[in-house]
């Protein structure tokens, strides 16, 4: 599988895992934590990843420390300042999203990783949403571990993630399921984790080749442009503001909804189902900070007409 940076001078430095959750668990389960150590995670992290980190910390008497990153009002420089202040001599790992899940922000990952490196803290990057969505060259980010999904924006079938580890981090890294490869090296250990269906992994190269044939850069540029156009247009239509600068968005955007649509989790669930069943539009509706938000995703088969259809459907409820 050809993807910039997945191959080192001595061969493969990544392997398939079923999904990003598995990649995160592999790294967390391999950490040698002591009581009083800290794992840093942000308030924007994916819930399952937070659970895995809380579990790994809790079983060793370590602490999970949450770095609060404002949303809306996201600003890269502010995020960096907050990160620098949250790192302590006890921080053993910082878990940083490349693209956040609910809030759909592209974090300044390379700068954040540099900040962690300066403090001697390894970084596990959660790139579940990144491959195929944004330009991705993993070694250039300066992170220690990177896990991503190919079944989101890279068009592979479900159950197709990967975990990459910097050469100096490969020793001592184990899959959550120990099997025949134990002690035979990093790649062997992860390549065979018991009998499973490898179909999604076998299909991944074809998915990547398809995107390359279509023009990956052009796809990403189109999707980003459409997501930003939609963010500006929808928020202006509702008298609101985009929650982050353009540089912090990829192919998705999480946008505030008019207050008349409700403010509770129940309102969010109701609206999401109504959009799906009454208008055949699938978009997550979130309840964040006492208001409702919609997360839009732009793919090459979408156009501004879809954004207009979403706006009209949403407005029909309030
Ligand atoms: C940021 C982030 N991390 C992790 C995950 C988990 O991905 P998976 O369920 O494929 O393991 C997701 C899923 O949406 C995500 O958005």
Automatic annotation (TrEMBL):
Presence of keyword Glycosyltransferase: no
Alphabetical list of PANTHER family matching this protein: HERCYNYLCYSTEINE SULFOXIDE LYASE, L-CYSTEINE DESULFHYDRASE
Domain Aminotransferase class V stretches: 16-234
UniProt-listed InterPro entries: Aminotrans_V_dom, PyrdxlP-dep_Trfase, PyrdxlP-dep_Trfase_major, PyrdxlP-dep_Trfase_small
Origin: domain of life: Bacteria
Keywords (A to Z) from UniProt: Aminotransferase, Pyridoxal phosphate, Transferase
One GO MF term: transaminase activity
Species per Swiss-Prot/TrEMBL record: Meiothermus taiwanensis WR-220
Full protein name: Aminotransferase class V
């Amino acid at each position: 599988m050809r993807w910039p940076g997945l191959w080192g001078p001595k061969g493969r430095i990544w392997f398939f895992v079923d999904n990003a959750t598995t990649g995160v668990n592999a790294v967390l389960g391999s950490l040698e934590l002591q009581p009083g150590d800290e794992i840093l995670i942000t308030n924007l992290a994916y819930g399952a990843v937070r659970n895995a980190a809380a579990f790994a910390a809790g079983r060793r008497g370590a602490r999970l420390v949450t770095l609060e990153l404002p949303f809306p009002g996201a600003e890269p420089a502010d995020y960096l300042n907050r990160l620098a202040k949250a790192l302590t001599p006890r921080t053993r790992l910082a878990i940083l999203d490349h693209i956040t899940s609910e809030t759909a922000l592209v974090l300044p990952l390379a700068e954040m990783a540099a900040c962690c490196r300066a403090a001697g803290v390894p970084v596990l990057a959660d790139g579940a949403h990144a491959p195929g969505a944004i330009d991705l060259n993993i070694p250039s980010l300066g992170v220690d571990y990177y896990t991503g999904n190919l079944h989101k924006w890279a068009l592979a079938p479900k159950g197709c993630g990967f975990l990459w580890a910097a050469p100096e981090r490969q020793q001592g890294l184990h899959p959550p399921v120990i099997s025949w490869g134990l002690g035979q090296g990093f790649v062997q250990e992860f390549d065979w984790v018991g009998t499973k269906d490898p179909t999604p992994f076998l299909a991944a190269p074809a998915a990547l080749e398809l995107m390359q044939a279509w023009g990956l850069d052009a796809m990403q540029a189109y999707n980003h442009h459409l997501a930003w156009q939609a963010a500006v247009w929808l928020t202006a239509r509702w008298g609101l503001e985009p929650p982050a600068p353009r540089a912090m968005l990829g192919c998705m955007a999480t946008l505030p909804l008019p207050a008349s649509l409700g403010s509770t989790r129940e309102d969010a669930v109701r609206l999401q189902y109504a959009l799906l069943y009454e208008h055949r539009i699938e978009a997550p509706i979130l309840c964040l900070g006492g208001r409702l938000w919609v997360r839009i995703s732009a793919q090459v088969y979408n156009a501004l007409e879809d954004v207009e259809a979403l706006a009209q459907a949403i407005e029909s409820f309030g």
